[in-house]
Every structure is written in C-alpha cells, then in structure tokens.
Amino acid sequence: MRTVTPQEIKQAIKTSAYPVALTGAGISVASSLPTLNKKFHGIPIETILHRSFFEEHPYTFYEFYREILRWKYCDPNPAHYTLAKYGISTVTQNIDGLHQKAGSQKVIEIHGNLRHLRCEQCCILYNTQLAKSQTLPLCHACGSILKPDIVLYNEPIQHWKKAVKEFLKADLVLIVGTSLQSSPINALPQLALESGAAQITINVHSDQFLHF
Ligand SMILES: [Zn+2]
User: Fold this and answer.
1) pTM of the model
2) pLDDT tens for each residue of 172-191
3) Are residues 144 and 195 in the same domain?
C-alpha cells in the first residue's frame, strides 16, 4: 500500500469507467455532526441502538432519536461535494443524508436514513417531523408505534442486493471514512477487487484528500 495525493485520486476518478464509493462516519467528521456522549440518560448508546431496546423502551428511544435528528441540520463538506460533483455512485453506512444534501444522485443508504419513520405493519413511510410533534409517533392507519427508518443492531442492512450490484460494476473503489470492521459490509470492496478493480482508501482528512 502507498500514499496517494489528491491529484492522483482525481486522476484515478477521471480515468475510471465506473467508480464506486463506500463511506462511513469518518466522511462526516468535517461536517461537525453534534457528538453524542457515549451515554444518553446514563444508558450506553450501543444499548439504545438495539432492536430490543426500541421495543421495550420506545419513549426513551424516541428521546434519543430526537437528539440525532439534529444531524439533519449539518452541512456537507468538500468530500461529500466531490463525490457528488463526479457523479460517483455511493454506498453509505451513514444516516445523516449529507451525500444527498451535497447533490449526489446515486446513494444507497444501507443503514437507513433520518428522513422517514416506518410502520412495519402497513409498510407506510411517514416524515420524520412526526417524531417532533408526537412523543411516540403512531401509524395513522393501524395505530402501531412507528419505527425510525434506521437499521438497528440485530436488523438486516437495507438494499444489500443493490449495493452488491454497484460493487460488481466498479473498476475503482473509494473507501472513505470507514474501517470496514463490520460484516457483511467489508465483503463489498472484495467483490470489486476480485474482478480487478483498483482501491483507494481515505480514512482521515477525507475533506482534504477529496477536495478537487
Ligand atoms: Zn400501520
């Protein structure tokens, strides 16, 4: 592995027939997302993000959810804008919506998003605003508690087949702001590499390395 310059990254993107980016929390660091302490009301955030916690403590879960909704008011940084500018198909683990805010048209959000709440009974989507006006948002049709459209622990990731398809087409893979420690996400770049794609990894300062 060697270090590449922003110029080289730009060149690689320009000469690539189908570049695909896989992004994680690191790309949004320069957008100063409000940080959450590791605990919320004394409860570890990891605990809150479990499916069972949502089912057993929906009020507390929604209090937490209203906190992370503040991420929606952050602005994209140069890394998001560069991926958008070059029309790079992006598979993201982030739920902050900053790729779309930067203008990216092709974004696959495998961990969901902060735009919708979902009724799991009726499969109806609601605007997140409902979580602001109601302490515990309920489905208008069936009365069930709505679930934020984000992927919790013990839930399958979303749009997996679509994400695989993108990586099978890719001849250049940009890994941005993710250490790829979780399965099955870490299998995605491998799919492209097996068919000969090049890979560039940008784990820190992506707002500087992807600024062109
Ligand atoms: Zn319903």
Assistant:
1) 0.93
2) 999 999 998 888 899 999 99
3) no
